[in-house]
Amino acid sequence: MSLVIDKLFTHTSKFVALTILLIVAAVFTVLVQHSLESIEAFGFSFVTQTKWAPNLEKFGALPAIYGSVVSTFLAMLLAVPLAIGVAIFLSELAPQRLKAPVGVSIELLAAIPSVIYGMWGLFYFVPIIRDIFGGIGISMLTAGIVLSIMILPFMAAVTRDAMNTTPDILKESAYALGGTKWDVIKDIVIPYAKAGIIGSFILALGRAIGETMAVTFVMGNVHKISLDLTAPATSIPVTLANEFTEADTDIYYSSLFELSLLLLVISFTIISVAKFYFLRRKRVGA
Amino acid sequence: MTHTHKRILINKLVMTLSTLSAMIGISFLFWILYILVSNGVDALSWAIFTEEGAPPGYEDSGLKHALIGQLMIVGVATLVGVPLGILAGTYLSEYGQKSKLAETIRDISDIMMSAPSIVIGAFVYAVVVAPMGHFSGWAGSIALTIIMLPIILRTTDDMLQLVPSTLREAAFALGAPKYKVIIQVVYRGAKAGILTGILLGVARVAGETAPLLFTSFNDNFLNTDMMEPMASLTVTMYNYATSPYEDWQKLGWAAAFILSMFILSLNILGRLFIMKKKGR
Q1: Using the beta-carbon criterion (under 8 Å), do B259 and A116 form an inter-chain contact?
Q2: Which chain A residue lies closest to B244 (C-alpha atoms)?
């Protein structure tokens, strides 16, 4: 009797574990299937055309891709130095009784849903951008800044964890040789934790590029490539969030599915690079 | 001497910059928290819990429909996702161990945890919503289950691995079959950790908006039929916040406040469980 249950337990658990692979395979297959119509119709020009006109059944994804790349780049540009600053502060500078409370509140902020960052951006940050830079305030720049604030807690927490892996004895040896705090950070901590730090930045990049709600509020969903950062723009997830329930023709749907597929492939690639290349030995963070 | 002075000066400069950037980062984050609390508390009232949605301008409008919808969608996802995730995690830690298959499943789950959730929404739209012909609460739950599964799986896997193998061996030596060892010894040893994983997993999916936009969609009134489109706090928040009506925006802030408090308490609770475990 218990042998039967034992077998049953083994096989059920294995089957369930395999379903996760099945789900991922199904996601890719279904997205490819539903994109076929658009892939056949537009081919490679889908990613090079700049015109996105559902009423003319013309779909070019370049503005969305451009928006994704630029907003994520802006976000990284702002968030990386801040995250390093926060991480250095938390792991090397802060007095012992500040470390835990500040560290925990940063981790808790990483748990706040992105839709709330988006709401804050729309009501409190858009007016500031409007006052400083003119325009309507809904723009690529706003999206980049809101995105950077949203990924900051995650990035800072993981970077701090990576820095904390430096053995104390190494740091103490450097201090004993007369190193200043900065000497120790730049010559001991950063070289030691380099792979972990870079890995967590790339992981944050992978998350930022697929982030939807934080930017949907403040980007405007305008399919136009503009070098002016204060002009409204769009990105792949913003287009999906705004247009998925509005699509009325098959080719429109298919184009949106091709966008989803594109996004999935891009973020899968970025996250894999972070995981397999930089975070291989120790599994840092989630 | 000048060299030393230079080093000390650079050190001071960098330390100031670092503290400054920490201050900037932290103050932004606390700014958001402050706005969330001040707007949220301002918008809270009893009507929020007892009234359904209403057209803008009506006195008696609330979030009852969204609260109940949210509980149902997340509840179903939890009921399905947690046992499946624990089972799969058990396989990885107790059967698969370091095998190639187990390692592949771990890697794929890690990637899935950071993959864009809106893509899962598109997938569920294609396989559930389109064949059914309309949006439904079930579709929302399915999307959230898919997002939750890898989180529960990985934490269960990690937590079970922390249980010392001597405990398992002792139970085996008494002649217990493997499933009994797992259920009565391993699960018991990893209880706090698994519980924390569940809490964090629920907290994570409760804040998801993107995958619900085109699965459970939205409804301005109370609906408890999972076959029909259903309101959730997050989608309601999105719709109300982007509307031009001030009373709807206020409801949006109330929803944001309630949801964040729920998610933050789950996170704090999860931490307490782990801390209690460590303290012993």
Answers
A1: yes
A2: A123
Query: Is any Cβ of chain A less than 8 angstroms from the Cβ of B245?
Result: no
Residues in chain A with CB shorter than 8 Å from the CB of B80 are: none
Overall pTM surpassing 0.90 (yes/no): yes
Cβ within 8 Å, pair A113-B22? no
Euclidean distance between CA atoms A214 and B166, whole angstroms: 48
Q: What is the DSSP letter of A59?
A: E
Per domain, the residue ranges of chain A are: 52-278
pLDDT tens, B179-224? 999 999 999 999 999 999 999 999 999 999 999 999 999 888 888 8
Query: Three-state SS for A220?
Result: strand
Instruction: Check pLDDT > 70 for residue A52.
Output: yes
Count CA within 13 A, CB hemisphere, residue B69. 33
Which residues, other chains included, contact A178 with Cβ-Cβ below 8 Å and sequence gap of 6+? none
Q: What is the DSSP string of B128-139?
A: IIHHHTS--HHH
Contact A21 B116 (CB under 8 A): no
pLDDT in tens, A143-162: 999 999 999 999 999 999 99
Cα–chain-centroid distance for residue A118?
14
Tally the residues of chain A: 286
Q: Does domain A52-278 have CATH number 1.10.3720.10?
A: yes
Confidence of residue A3 (pLDDT cuts 50, 70, 90): confident
- CA distance to partner chain B, nearest, from residue A31 (Å): 7
Residues B73 and B228: beta-carbon distance below 8 Å: no
